[in-house]
Amino acid sequence: MLRPHLLLLFSQRSLHTSRTLRWKLRDEYKLTRPELVDRISALLVLQRFDALNNLSFQFSDELLDSVLRKLRLNPNACLGFFRLASKHQNFRPNIKSYCIIVHILSRARMFDETRAHLKELISLCRNNHSAFTIWRELVCVYKEFSFSPTVLDMILKVYAEKGLTKYALHVFDNMGKCGRVPSLRSCNCLLSNLVKNGEHHTAVLLYDQVIRLGIVPDAFTCAIMVNAYCKEGRVGRAAEFFKEMENLGFEPNLVTYNSLINGYVSLGDVEGAVGVFKLMSEKGILKNVVSYNLLIKGYCKQRKMEEAESVLRQMKEDESIIVDERAYGVLLDGYCQVGRMDDAVRIQDEMFKLGLKMNVFICNSLINGYCKTGKINEAEGVVMHMRDWNLKPDSYTYNSLVDGYCREGQTSEAFKLCDKMLEEGINSTVVTYNTLLKGLCHVGAFNDALRLWDLMVKRGVAPDEIGYCTLLDGFIKMKDFDGATRLWKDILARGFNKSRFVFNIMINGLCKMGKMVEAEQVFDKMKELGCTPDEITYRTLSDGYCKVGNVEEAFKVKDLMVRESIFPSIEMYNSLITGVFRSRKLSKVMDLFAEMQTRGLSPNTVTYGALIAGWCSEGMLDKAINLYFDMIGKGFSPNVIIHSKIISSLYRFGRVDEGSLLLEKLVDFDLFPDCGFSLQPCKAGIRNKEIEKIADFLNESAKSASLPNSIVYNIAILGLCKSGKIADAKKFFSALLLRDFTPDNFTFCTLIHATAATGDVNEAFNLRDEMLNRGIVPNIATYNALINGLCKSGNMGRALRLFHKLHLKGLAPDVVTYNILIDGYCKNGDISEAFKLRDKMIAEGIAPSVITYSALINGLRKDGNVEESVQLSALTIKMGVEANLVKNSISIQDDVEYESMQKISMLNGVVHNWYPSSVVSAS
């Protein structure tokens, strides 16, 4: 129990405390603004932040600024109050308050907090006015407080780090007015981000300003500038700058060397990249994964895959390097880009053996590679495996597959894949729509392409330059001039008026339609809008004039481009050569050829083709033949068009033997080098898309060489057959039938001879039956091919029966017929039947040839009748048959085939008189 005096004391203290609290609350409520600022400041200095809750006030810009100014020498108190204000539900500090707090914090060297508040300020201010206001307020506070110039440099760096280079440059330009110079660190940051944003030229100009300000660069500056020059395409200047820095005593770092390597690789100058690589070794600079990967990438871009793989092997031997998925990924992607999928899979297997894992980039490379080579099933297989590898397909994965289906003409499958893409939560991008548009245009479904275009726009996907060009090209291929014109106006209205590619597409389309006046108008509009024409623009316009026979205007275009310091390419000279032949301006031909060589341009296959076609059309075959052998001597392979033109001309002027001899050489040449397909390396056979590609190429080339398509097709089929690609020849033949190709005697004779020679006699007879169904009467060359096939398959009885039926078909056997049968009997050891046939042919008035006696002599030797073979050899020599052809090493069957094909060629050549008939004869 409390004593009375203690109870009295307790009650007095309680009453006193209570009265004091009530008086304080009433007093605080009646504080003036200066008193409130003083009271808040006092509590902040004492770090009594909780006591602020007992004060009755509302946050405002004026109150916050007043407290910050009063406590500007106490950064912790200011920061505490600023944080309270920032967290308040109904208040946010303004730009001026932020500028005050960052100056206060910077003066106290609280740089982390300063940087954090600057970033927060910038994130709150997203428009131009606010950004420039920030700078003005920072400068005002700087002048008012007279401290913390570091803030000015920090805002420059923060702007640069966030990629806001426009505002960073404004700060850089105005710091001098405050008597301040940016720090090297901030300058490096700004330079680096300018390069990252693709503003390479601005970076170069800024660097010049940095040097003028007296700021001394360092190794990082050097690396950034080398990268800037390289990204700008001025690799030569980058190399010079590199040397200048070395001369000034700077030691370029690894990043600098890698930037220089990347610059050379970007230009396709692998030798330059290798030079930098060697320099690194000389300077003792250790290479890293990036160095090697860049070099691998360079070789891959040049399609030098063996060299690229050797770099990977060298990389594995470097003990300082750990080879990872990236290196293998670059090489694998290179193989995929050139269509060497077997090698790509081999590299993948090597990765697995090393314990390396697949990533999305490698999977996408494989998928893209398979799709480009028409192996859609394999591409789908990679997608299935991605789940096993815990990888998720992305938009690139699906877009590659969509492109693959479109390339194969399977647009319905491509659209199904787009639906699946949406189910997986991946939205269709403008790339997806562009791919589908291209696919629809490729299969001729242009109306569907237009509907897809409208759908794309309705779905809010903005068309890009590629989409517009695809659609524009579609209108042009449909020869819809009005549609192309409407779209063209829309393209210009959409702001694509600075793209050379767009203008070149339109000019090319108009030239193809022969609308040269309109093409000139687009050309003039291009220059008016400030889009500079390039070599392709001038070449397209010149070629258009050549094709309409106005070679004078074509030469004016050439002269105009030269005045603009744009020099003609070999392609332009090739077009002009064709044009002057077409216009019969023959005196200009050799002038063009000489001018081309003066400019350091060497003739290519197309140049020789244009010259050979021109001289053949003029009947100057000796000039054409000299050029033919000249191009072979220089390592060029005449293509099927050149062969077709020169052979048809030889037959046209009665030089049958030379034409036949040239036909026999077709197998030694790459017939389709200009359409991206070669006979020589092809192992798996021609795919449908390649057949279409070759046929389109042959169509266009035949027109340019003034040749009927049928002549070119027949020689192409012959070339495939002579190369042993019988299945490809049949596929090509079947595809051509769908393109309104009318086969003739030579077409079937070529296929029958090739099929029978492989022993597939039944197929050969099926071809004969198809020939009859088409109303084409087989000639003796056709039946010789069938008899030859029967003999090769050992069916001599059937061969002889067919021989005896020839007269029923209105045909008489020739020397080739007898030689085939005689050779067949000799190889079967039935020498007596062979000699009976020899006697029969003599009785029929057909003189035995060298091949006849060669077969008989070899047959006697094979049968052990050496003495008789010697006697027959002596007899043949006495008869005037050349003895050097009668040797043990001779291949009788090869000679039989040669003579057979030669006879086919000669007979067909004489009957059809080749040129300019649309019916092909011999080839």
UniProtKB/TrEMBL annotation:
Q: Name one GO biological process term.
A: mitochondria-nucleus signaling pathway
**Can you say where the PPR repeats lie in this chain?**
183-217, 218-252, 253-287, 288-322, 324-358, 359-393, 394-428, 429-463, 464-498, 499-533, 534-568, 569-603, 604-638, 709-743, 744-778, 779-813, 814-848, 849-883
| InterPro entries reported in the protein's UniProt record | PPR_rpt (IPR002885), TPR-like_helical_dom_sf (IPR011990)
Q: From what superkingdom does this record's organism come?
A: Eukaryota
Task: Quote the cellular component terms of the Gene Ontology held in the record.
Answer: chloroplast
Say yes or no: keyword Transit peptide present: no
**UniProtKB keywords:** Repeat
The keyword Repeat is assigned to this record: yes
PROSITE patterns named among the record's database cross-references: PPR
List the Pfam families.
PPR, PPR_1, PPR_2
Q: Which family does the record claim for this protein?
A: Belongs to the PPR family. P subfamily.
* PANTHER family recorded: PENTATRICOPEPTIDE REPEAT-CONTAINING PROTEIN GUN1, CHLOROPLASTIC, PPR_LONG DOMAIN-CONTAINING PROTEIN
Per its record, how is this protein called by name? Tetratricopeptide-like helical domain containing protein
Record organism: Trema orientale (Charcoal tree)
